């Protein structure tokens, strides 16, 4: 049985400003680098076989820091990129309200559909599950991609927003995905 750990990237300045990042290529801020280092220390005491990452800087930087800590090379997969935000990328909620009004979510602003995000995420996870039977796989990606795919794969699990550098562990048992750990950030409190 394959163990898949979904990891959200470390924090960025846009996270702190409440800006929609989407496919914009934003780097980690200093806090994000430290968060990734703490997660690398935590994962260093465990055995992991592979690490996959989105190509976007914030996820890739997180993966490199973790990979260096545990001795794994990063494998890039473009299906792990964040949901494209279209015209809202780089804007805050207030800026969206000012520009498009309270119904901005109902407008066609070029935002990638949830279904498309789930489709590419699910294809990736199913492929990894088949390709690496019995192995432990780290997957560094983005909040919306993780959230929408988690909700799709484990619909009965009460889920919330995924925190920066949180780790969520999934396994597929008898054709059904299960969650063994959800949104865990104990490494940010120095608990390894």
Automatic annotation (TrEMBL):
Domain of life according to the entry: Bacteria
Keyword entries, A-Z: Hydrolase
Molecular-function GO terms, alphabetical: fructose-2,6-bisphosphate 2-phosphatase activity
Annotated Pfam families: His_Phos_1
GO biological process, one term: negative regulation of glycolytic process
SUPFAM superfamilies: Phosphoglycerate mutase-like (SSF53254)
Gene Ontology CC terms, in alphabetical order: cytosol
Keyword Plastid among UniProt keywords: no
Residues the entry annotates as binding substrate: 8-15, 58
Active site: 9 (tele-phosphohistidine intermediate), 82 (proton donor/acceptor)
InterPro entries for this protein: His_Pase_superF_clade-1, His_PPase_superfam, Phosphoglycerate_Mutase
UniProt name for this protein: Histidine phosphatase family protein
PANTHER family linked: FRUCTOSE-2,6-BISPHOSPHATASE TIGAR (PTHR46517)
